[in-house]
Amino acid sequence: MSDIYIVGTACTAFGKQAGKSFHQLVREAYLDVIADAGLTPDDSSRIEQAWFGNCGMGQWGQGGIRGQVCFTPLVEEGLFAQRVPIINVEGACATGSFAFHGACKDILSGESQMSLALGVEKLVSLDAPERVASIFATGIDQLEPDRWRRYYQAAGEESGKPFETGPGRTLFMDTYAMQAAWHMKTFGTTQRQIAEAASKSHFHGSLNPKAQY
Q1: Using CA atoms, how far apart are residues 100 and 180, in angstroms rounded to an integer?
Q2: DSSP per-residue letters across 130-196
Q3: Which CATH number covers residue 94?
């Protein structure tokens, strides 16, 4: 099959969601997306495959079969068909794209007529904030950390902004700052221009009832 159609989309409201479990967030997103597709739970058997994206559930003790665990209550309640293959994917900030790409390939290959891509993440843990720090820490090579340290130190020298990590933030904040500094140095980008991009994003967010800010 050469044509792929996105028949439904949905998302939960953006926010800290500290009071909601992974199961609750998955339920909300799933029920909303099948409703948007014009399906009912009775139609769930038409979904022949599912791709589930997540990076952080391991910090809550669920290191494997994350999608299967989150969908089990839905299966038990007859809201999701039994024995649907669920493929778990993890790719840091590209996790959602991985899941979507996998679902598209299901259709292109002719393996499935309908495939589901769904992801969930929680980046707030009020009782154990170290969980969130660990999620970000495992998003970069911890087996040979000297590799990325050398890379970012060289990038810092090129951008004119030394690579210096600090408490209270992830190292990715420092890499973003270096990228901005490099762009300013290379293209003459101003602080005002960067601020205008942020302002534009805030404006669009104000039009979305599910946006956080």
Answers
A1: 29
A2: HHHHHHHHTTS-SSSHHHHHHHHHHHHHHHTS-----TTS-HHHHHHHHHHHHHHHHH---HHHHHH
A3: 3.40.47.10
Domains identified in the chain, total number: 2
Integer Cα distance of 143 and 13 in angstroms? 36
Global pTM exceeds 0.85: yes
- Indicate the SS3 state at residue 77: coil
According to DSSP, the β-strands at 86-89 and 49-53 are: parallel
* 10-residue stretch averages of pLDDT, the chain, 213 residues long: 91 93 98 97 94 97 98 98 98 96 97 97 91 91 96 92 88 93 96 96 95 86
Distance in angstroms (rounded) separating the CA atoms of residues 66 and 26: 11
Three-state secondary structure call for residue 30 = helix
Q: Determine the structural domain holding residue 33 and report its residue range.
A: 22-119
